[in-house]
């Protein structure tokens, strides 16, 4: 059987990996080069620690304070857009304590499964990428934040995750090369990280060797259907027959769904990152600077820092204030690092695919007999990629899935 995957980001690549492992013929179509998508420049976290979905009552309250400040961690560009308005109404409806309580087990299951699979993937492909199993910090400067992080730590323990609550002195002892200015931190010991570019390039080379075909720099112009089945993709490089279709094109998923006459609530959440190399002082572990919503990923003398959630559509405009705010936050937590000044013109940005309830879309759509969606992971694409790829492969093959997938239904907002 031939499977076509639209989207060559980390979700598409992992889905291709598990499908090919089962013997399917796989073709991956992407509108860009692989390095141009959200997966390539993100923070590279494999983070079971992120078991709470994005849509929470707290984010609504905080977001209202932040949303009109273009330098804040969360910003919405004011505009009249019906897709954004619908998404916002659904987000508000789902950002309740009751919905979070239902979502946590589903998200936790996906993240823990994905971590296990990522460890196994490194064993299968040791030459392709390195998985760094050193945990991840949640660092904070405010007592209120610390109290909240300790409550989350207790929740994590109840879900089977290992955490360590640390004082400022204990954090400093575990980061001996750099000065750390914090009130305290929680170390999530099961979290891991990768260099996402290395992971994607390694997977790409492996898939090529296994016979997976790639149509890169290829736009899907239209879709041919017959009697509830997708039969052919009309692309900028020619026609592509379609037996089974997996849509894994990230933040463009909602736009593609319209070609099929479907409404799929999705918004691109732009995030920024900056890279630094050959540093004289090195962090030992990744960290979330919780009060400022900034993330750091170190690998030796290489460092990436990033953050923000900007709902401005697929705008290619870089807002310098947002890039500078990330750099300032890093300097407050790590005052001795002395990174080069932030240069907004060199900042990377990507579009995270954000659903209204913070859970991805994973599964079939009843409108078409051969259509599957895999996307909408927001900041958790790398974290959940392996689990998503395996689940899609199981569902497509008619096998029992490793996890219940009802919470991830692409039709839950229909």
* Major β-sheet annotation: 9 strands, mixed
How would you state the average pLDDT, rounded?
95
If classified by CATH, what would the architecture be? Answer: 3-Layer(bba) Sandwich
Q: Give the proportion of residues in helices.
A: 25-40%
The best one-word shape is globular
CATH class category label = Alpha Beta
Tally of separate domains: 1
- Strand content is 15-25%
Q: Helix count?
A: 10
Name the poorly predicted regions: none
- The ordered string of helix (H) and strand (E) elements is EHEEHEHHEHEHEEHEEEEEHEEEEHEEEH
CATH superfamily: FAD/NAD(P)-binding domain
First and last CA, distance: 30 Å
Please give the number of β-strands: 20
Radius of gyration: 21 Å
State the assembly state of the protein chains.
single chain
């Amino acid at each position: 059987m031939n499977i076509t995957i639209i989207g060559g980001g980390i979700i598409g690549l992992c889905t291709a990996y598990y499908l090919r492992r089962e013997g399917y013929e796989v073709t991956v179509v992407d509108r860009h080069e692989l390095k141009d998508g959200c997966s390539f420049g993100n923070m590279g976290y494999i983070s079971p620690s992120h078991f709470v979905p994005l849509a929470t009552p707290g984010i609504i309250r905080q977001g209202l304070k932040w949303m009109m400040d273009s330098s804040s961690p969360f910003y919405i560009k004011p505009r009249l857009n019906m897709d954004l308005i619908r998404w916002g109404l659904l987000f508000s409806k789902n950002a309740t304590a009751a919905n979070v309580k239902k979502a946590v087990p589903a998200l936790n299951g996906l993240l823990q499964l994905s971590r296990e699979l990522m460890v196994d993937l490194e064993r299968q492909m040791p030459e392709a990428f390195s998985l760094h199993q050193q945990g991840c910090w949640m660092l904070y400067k405010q007592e209120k934040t610390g109290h909240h992080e300790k409550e989350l730590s207790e929740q994590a323990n109840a879900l089977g995750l290992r955490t360590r609550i640390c004082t400022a002195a204990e954090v400093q002892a575990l980061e001996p090369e750099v000065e750390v200015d914090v009130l305290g931190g929680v170390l999530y010991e099961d979290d891991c990280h990768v260099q996402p570019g290395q992971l994607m390039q390694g997977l790409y080379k492996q898939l090529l060797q296994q016979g997976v075909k790639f149509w890169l720099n290829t736009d899907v112009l239209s879709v041919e259907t017959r009697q509830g089945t997708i039969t052919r993709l009309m692309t900028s490089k020619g026609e592509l027959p379609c037996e089974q279709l997996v849509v894994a094109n990230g933040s463009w998923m909602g736009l593609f769904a319209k070609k099929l006459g479907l409404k799929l609530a999705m918004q691109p959440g732009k995030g920024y990152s900056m890279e630094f190399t050959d540093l004289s002082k090195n962090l030992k572990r990744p960290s979330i600077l919780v009060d400022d919503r900034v993330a750091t990923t170190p690998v030796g003398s290489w460092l990436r820092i990033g953050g923000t959630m900007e709902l401005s559509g697929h705008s290619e405009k870089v807002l310098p204030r947002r890039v500078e705010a990330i750099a300032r936050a890093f300097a407050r937590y790590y005052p001795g690092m002395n990174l080069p000044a932030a240069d907004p013109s060199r900042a990377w940005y990507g579009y995270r695919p954000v659903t209204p309830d913070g859970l991805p879309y994973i599964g079939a759509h009843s409108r078409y007999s051969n259509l599957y969606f895999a996307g909408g992971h927001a900041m958790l694409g790398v974290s959940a990629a392996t689990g998503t790829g395996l689940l899609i492969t199981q569902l497509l093959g008619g096998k029992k899935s490793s996890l219940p997938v009802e919470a991830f239904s692409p039709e839950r907002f229909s």
